[in-house]
Amino acid sequence: MRNEYGVKETRFIIEKNYSERDNDWFYDIVDMHPLRDRRVVSYVTVEDTDGSGLNYGFTAAQEEADALNDKYGYDSKAGHNIYV
Prior knowledge:
Elements: E1 12-19, E2 24-31, E3 39-45, H1 57-72
Antiparallel strand pairs: 1-2, 2-3
C-alpha cells in the first residue's frame, strides 16, 4: 500500500515505550491496520534482562516487525485479508 506521495507504508511499526509497572523500557511492535484500532502485537525489551543474549534491543524488534510485514503486510498475499 502506498500513500498519496507514492511512499510505501508498513503495517507493523516499532515504538519505544516505558512501563511504569515493570520500571523498564520496551520496543513495542504495533499493528497500524487502518480498519482496526491500533494494537500492540508483540514487545521486546531494550536491555538483556534474562542474560541469554537473545531477543532484545532494537535489532530484534526490527527483525520481528520485518517478519510480520513480510507475512501479513500490505504487499503480502495475506495482507489483503482484513481478518488476518
